[in-house]
Amino acid sequence: MFDFIIIGGGIIGLLTAKELQQTGARVAIIEKNSPEQQATRAAGGILSPMRPWHYSDAVNAISQISQSIYRDLSQQLHSATGIDPEWILSGMLVLHDEETAEAIRWCQQHQAAHKMLAAREFQQQFPYLKPIQQPALLRDDVATIRPAQLAAALSRYLSDQGVRFFKQNAQSLLFNKQRISGVQLANEVIKAKEYIICGGAWSPQLIPAESPAPEILPVKGQMICFPAIGIPKPCMVMDGNRYIIPRLDGQVVVGSTRENTGFDASTSPEAFAELRKFAEELLPALKGLEPHAHWAGLRPSSPDSIPYICRVEPYDNLSLNAGHFRNGIVLAPASAQVMVDILLERSSHIDHSPYQLRRSSSAN
Ligand SMILES: Cc1cc2nc3c(=O)[nH]c(=O)nc-3n(C[C@H](O)[C@H](O)[C@H](O)COP(=O)(O)OP(=O)(O)OC[C@H]3O[C@@H](n4cnc5c(N)ncnc54)[C@H](O)[C@@H]3O)c2cc1C
Predict the structure, then answer these.
(1) Mutate to test the pocket of ligand 1, among 14, 38, 335 (most ligand atoms within 8 A of CB)
(2) Model pLDDT, residue 363
(3) Which residue ranges in the chain fall short of pLDDT 50?
(4) What's the pTM?
(5) For ligand 1, what atom is nearest to the CA of residue 321?
(6) Predicted local confidence at residue 362, as pLDDT
(7) pLDDT digits (tens, 9 = 90+) for 52-92
(8) pLDDT recorded at residue 240
């Protein structure tokens, strides 16, 4: 018998497990092992909403808390496991578009570090990028991380700390009146005092019919990656809806599409060609290089982009931490804290009310 069973071993499930394990609880994670669809392994790893001015205070509040946690978290995992999640303060360049004025206003209002680079200064600092006509916004306090390495480090760390992994599909939740009594796996039922659904885009499939259904839908994102090139000052660059993320080893990740294709996580030659063309125009040194990787993942989208972090009625011992859409990597550490505050009835300085299951789906 465990204290907590978490269904889903993406970033949300892993960090929720870490937060619980630190309290001395006995924790299990059930993960059906779908790396070809999982959002976490597909993510770029930008540790900020791409356009925070598009998001509600509820999203930006937990984003800011998470950003302040990531550097130490990355170091802790690296030294404990030998796997480096590669937190780097890369900065984020936002090339001029129709939202630039709004972006500057947001930075000013939120005291977010930023400066405007005119064409000449831009050229001096980023000679490898295409020249600009209009000033670009540089947010140099934005960091990136490598999500697949982060997930690998977390899985290793949690195993070493005694968290039990079940590499199986959780078929259904068993219940008795208002209590969940177990999780049905292929050949056994496993039991805990509390159950937490962290199943990303699949979460609604696990919610019993008696409960209000979370509005979470899969939204596919495709990415490509170029082999390493020498970039003197790796900085993430956003140009419209597309972006490039240079990695520490010189590889360049390019993203991403946004497609409503249900649970189909296949890649397409059209997206490959489009992302490649975008990247070659922005970073001409990529011309002639063949991208060596192309993948897709399913983002768990909620109607207002605010995650559900809450208890699930009418059950006494069922909770949900899911629906982080495009921001699950950056929101994960604070989301895990909110979840565990609720589970352990800890006092919290974060207002939990925006993350409830029953809420009006206001636009963000
Ligand atoms: C292309 C792309 C780029 C992105 N870039 C960024 C970014 O730069 N920054 C950022 O913050 N966010 C980004 N995101 C969003 C981020 O990846 C997601 O919000 C986040 O990974 C969601 O994490 P999760 O753990 O909720 O879901 P997932 O990572 O999808 O994990 C859910 C897990 O639950 C498991 N599961 C589900 N049902 C069951 C079951 N019945 N039994 C057992 N296991 C089950 C699945 O196998 C899966 O592994 C990106 C997403 C994509 C697709």
Answers:
(1) 38
(2) 41
(3) 362-364
(4) 0.97
(5) 26
(6) 47
(7) 999 999 999 999 999 999 999 999 999 999 999 999 999 99
(8) 92
319: nearest Cα among 3, 6, 2, 24: 6
CATH topology of domain 2-78+147-215+304-355: FAD/NAD(P)-binding domain (3.50.50)
**Distance (Å) from CA 349 to ligand 1 centroid:** 26
Contact criterion met (CB below 8 Å) for 23 and 40: no
- Going by their DSSP bridges, the two strands 318-322 and 308-311 should be labelled as antiparallel
Q: Residue with the nearest Cα to atom 38 of ligand 1?
A: 199
Question: Residue 360: what pLDDT?
Answer: 59
Q: What is the pLDDT of residue 364?
A: 41
Q: Which option is the CATH number for 89-142+217-301: 3.40.50.300, 3.30.9.10, 1.10.3210.10, 1.20.58.1480?
A: 3.30.9.10
Domain coordinates of the chain in residue numbers?
A: 2-78+147-215+304-355, 89-142+217-301
